[in-house]
Automatic annotation (TrEMBL), chain A:
<keyword id="KW-0479">Metal-binding</keyword>
<feature type="transmembrane region" description="Helical">
    <location>
        <begin position="648"/>
        <end position="666"/>
    </location>
</feature>
<feature type="transmembrane region" description="Helical">
    <location>
        <begin position="67"/>
        <end position="87"/>
    </location>
</feature>
<feature type="transmembrane region" description="Helical">
    <location>
        <begin position="34"/>
        <end position="55"/>
    </location>
</feature>
<feature type="transmembrane region" description="Helical">
    <location>
        <begin position="609"/>
        <end position="628"/>
    </location>
</feature>
<keyword id="KW-0547">Nucleotide-binding</keyword>
<keyword id="KW-0597">Phosphoprotein</keyword>
<keyword id="KW-1003">Cell membrane</keyword>
<keyword id="KW-0067">ATP-binding</keyword>
From TrEMBL, chain B:
<comment type="function">
    <text>Part of the high-affinity ATP-driven potassium transport (or Kdp) system, which catalyzes the hydrolysis of ATP coupled with the electrogenic transport of potassium into the cytoplasm. This subunit binds the extracellular potassium ions and delivers the ions to the membrane domain of KdpB through an intramembrane tunnel.</text>
</comment>
<feature type="transmembrane region" description="Helical">
    <location>
        <begin position="6"/>
        <end position="26"/>
    </location>
</feature>
<feature type="transmembrane region" description="Helical">
    <location>
        <begin position="283"/>
        <end position="302"/>
    </location>
</feature>
<feature type="transmembrane region" description="Helical">
    <location>
        <begin position="258"/>
        <end position="276"/>
    </location>
</feature>
<feature type="transmembrane region" description="Helical">
    <location>
        <begin position="179"/>
        <end position="200"/>
    </location>
</feature>
<dbReference type="Pfam" id="PF03814">
    <property type="entry name" value="KdpA"/>
</dbReference>
<keyword id="KW-0633">Potassium transport</keyword>
<feature type="transmembrane region" description="Helical">
    <location>
        <begin position="374"/>
        <end position="398"/>
    </location>
</feature>
<dbReference type="GO" id="GO:0005886">
    <property type="term" value="C:plasma membrane"/>
</dbReference>
Amino acid sequence: MKSQNSSLFQKDLVRQALRESFIKLNPKIIFRNPVMFTVEIGTVILFFVCIWIAAGENSQGSLGYNLAVFLILLLTLLFANFAEAIAEARGKAQADSLRKTREETPAKRVEKGTSYTTVSSSQLRKGDVFLCEAGDIIPSDGEIIEGLATIDESAITGESAPVIREAGGDKSSVTGGTKVLSDRIRVLVTTEPGESFLDKMIGLVEGASRQKTPNEVALTILLAGFTLVFILVTGTLAPFAEYVNSPVTITALISLFVCLIPTTIGGLLSAIGIAGMDRALRANVITKSGRAVEVAGDIDVLLLDKTGTITIGNRKATRIFAANGVDEKQFAHSVLLSSLSDETPEGKSIIELVGGVPANLKLDNFRFIKFTAETRSSGIDVGQTRIRKGAVDTIRTLSEKAGNHFPEEIHEQVIAISANGGTPLVVAENERVIGVIELQDIIKPGIQERFERLRKMGIKTVMVTGDNPLTARYIAEKAGVDDFIAEAKPEDKMNYIRHEQAQGRLVAMMGDGTNDAPALAQADVGVAMNSGTQAAKEAGNMVDMDNDPTKLIEIVEIGKQLLMTRGTLTTFSIANDVAKYFAIIPALFMVGIPSLQGLNIMQLASPESAILSAVIFNALIIPFLIPLALKGVAYKPIGASALLRRNLLIYGLGGLVAPFIGIKLIDSALSFIF
Amino acid sequence: MPTEILGILCTYLLVLAAAIPLGRYIGKVFSYEPTRLDVLFNPLDRLFFKLSGIDPRLPMSWKEHLQALLTINLVWFTVSLFVLTNMEWLPLNPDGNPSMSADLAFNTAVSFVTNTNLQHYSGESGLSYFGQLTLMVWQFVSAATGMAICSVVFLAFSPNTTTRLGNFYSLLVRSATRILFPLAFLGAVVLLLNGVPMTFEGKAAATTLEGAVQEISRGPAAAFVPIKQLGTNGGGYYGTNSAHPLENPNYLTNMLETAFIFLIPIAMVFAFGYVIRRKKLAWMIYGVMTLGFLLLVIPSVLNELKGNPVISTLGIDQRLGSFEGKEIRVGAASSAYWAINTTVTSNGSVNAMHDSMTPLTGMFAMVGMMVNCFYGGVGVGFLNFFVFIILGVFMGGLMVGRTPEFLGRKVEAREVKIAMCIALVHPLLILGGTALASHLYVTDPVEYAGWLNNPGFHGFSEMLYEFTSASANNGSGFEGLGDNTPFWNIACGLVMLLARFLPIIGPVAIAGLLISKKYIPESAGTLKTDTATFGLLVFAVIVLVAALSFFPALTLGPLAEYFSLYY
């Protein structure tokens, strides 16, 4: 499901969109878009004008010219419909590839006790329990209530390494369409068919259930307002023209009207919205509503878990330090032995640090000492030598009980390691401290740049960690986050979010555990990991299929792009009007008031060619801008004022100048042909 | 000629130098901070409120403010209507002037209550002294109304604001007594010393050099003129307004009267900066307004100095500029300067015939009224600008990828809806009115022949100007239009009412809605509104909305006239 359609216009999609463009001419459908609806009314009027002329009327210009304008207006409508249709088609294609993962699959529904019947996945209802064994496709989203299994989720995430899911805890949820590789699980169905996240998202990209987002509503009002202004302008122009004894034709008035109203943005508006949802889906994020994506663009504060997000999942050994009078090589050997039985990632990293297990290592008469909650240390007994490693306090007690002194230099090292954000592990041999191992959190490569980017967007990053404040501060500084919550309990997250929200900030957080659910629900944008629990997924308003905690940066950018694309295209559309005025107004009156030739600064050939050029330019600009509408205007975190300057220059000034050139070129071409 | 330009520059710089401290003072008055004049005015205020039984400390919500404003305006309107239709028998009528007809009284009452002062009559023959004085009071209160309701928007955005925004009556009285009255008093003294009449005696008789006896109208003019200039009212004591030698005797009084036109409109911008504690934002607004003002005033002054090519062909010397319809003691440059000043600020007083200006100056005067917020009327000019700020904030917010916000409050669908409706009012009234008039004229040119002195493009400009002036609550006339007819009296009266109150209700409602929302602190992603870039965006929004709405109409009026004169 990784973005496989790199080309914007695939053949079959285009064909499908073309057909849709005609279906969408239905006034009931087009009514949703006030700007294009008025264009449709104008087109219909022109159609009757053409019939009127054909019937013998001669005050409205030639039939050929009127027919040409009529066809161009019809084309304008089709182009706008096509923009929406192609965005929908792309969304549908994306949705279909998702849907493939949830085709009808057999489900082993547990009836009573241990017996099961095989039914179709669509027959599963919320509350049903089904069974999955190695090789089965999981038929529906759900929560494991019994067992453990390795699951191939590549169909959803594109990640080929299998993952382990088990009952209880934070890794209990499974997604329909994924495949069980080993073992056997019992799963509780948690959603009705057709109501899962995926179904909601499919609805959103297909446009059927898409509701206008708040900013889109506001923009529609603005565009409707401009449309009203231009109804007024063209409507009053008729009596004005009468007064100066230079009556204008219906075609000219309608052409002027269609050119002036913001058809460019009006035609592309819904395409932009659908394409935004589509981009979110391509980033492998499932959202519950379009609104959530838009809100993501406004986020002020971002809460991130330290582990797995800022740092690589586990701590790593980075340094060992022998006590005075202990041979470094001997100490390294003891460290190796102490960790032989340690299966934790930390233990493995210690062995890695001291050069791995030598091939010729032979041990006689040895016994591994596993870590227990009681001893709080682990190690090995080799012959008479007892090697133990553990937290500072544990080993200190151990050695002091045996009457040994805790070395001063080790004590200093321990403090230094803590201050550097590390965790010290002290090693003792026969209850005598022989040195210390430093474990460090490894900050993910490239994470600082990502936080820098967020800061430039105006987003404050907050790290949430169970570490002590000293360690937390060190990591926070090193990673470049703005704030941290140390020794965090679930309610701390919640309180932090509430506090920020009370000050008017919008908060986003990523989470996966059940105890994250309240905070995910409280946050303005809550992104749950797909690997997280069902509760977390229900509480948030987005699910990240890749389980990538820094995905929020992409979501924020998609949200911002969505608004920017609308804003810049509106600006472009309105700025275009200046040139269109200079093309059409002189054309309307040049015959009756020859001195107005002075306003014809583009030196267009004739009134008819001037009006045709303007409506042709107006129509062509829509398909020309479809790629921009689908891809979105590039967001650059350079600060709001710089961004505004940049966009005003490109789309404002560009919108002012482009039509002068375009209309002149079309006019030249027209007068060359005819 | 350089002296004329110097005179203009001096006037402007003096006004700016005075407007900055005055803005600070106005800000203090609205924020109820102590000023040195309190000793004088606090007892006066107490007297007012004791007599009227109003509690000035009772805070109002934005809706209550609007209710108070509309109620009190209705009362004023009724009183004026009564006075104007009964002047004949009321006292202070030494010249025996008659009462007004019903439609003219309607137009005049509306016109003074709405701060428009579109005069379809001549003061010297159409009003008694009692009528003049009544209208003078409305010049104070309508200006104070604009300032008081504008201060409600200021207070809405001040730090530590609540949804209760002062008391309307208290703000109204403070505007009138503490700001308008002292300045008007000073102005009146200067005018008096320069020969402007101030008497309740009837017409004076004078024997001219030829031996004929001439009657000269006089009255309490010195008191009337300063507030007409200060409050962006513009209703002249005499029919020819400040072109009359007794209303504007010399170059010095001309400078003072010009300065009074835009002193308070500029000061209001700085008052906003003071009240909300954001000086930089005030300078951004001032900058945008000034840019627009300069773009109108510079070409106008140059055009009038250049003269009219048709007159040149008659062999008339135009080295001093185009003098058709202008006063020698004022000069071409100062007349053009006044013309733009009075139209951008919705003042409407004149010192020359706008009808006789060159076509482009006439157009720039109309554009000033169509935009109506390059400085704008006292208080209301800022409110008009505020609507464009909201539209600019919306566009700008989208363009930087963030839900738009202004001073920490989110601008959403409801605010955009109101702003867009208000932006629609002006084109609707101007274009709709002119279209109706054009249509009537075309269908029956004989019946309406009295309307237009000049048929053709100039006649179109006259009608367009009249509706523009009414809708901008400006009140100046292109004259040459036979406007004392039931159609023009009633049509313009309705336009003035709608154009006065809708653009007051809209911005106050937006401000009221905005402050009821949660305050959002600024971040690096927030669009800053006090920058030159944002100023440019607002300027572009203003120009586009005005240019896009009115370009076709202007083409058929002044532009067509210009091209037929010069090409």
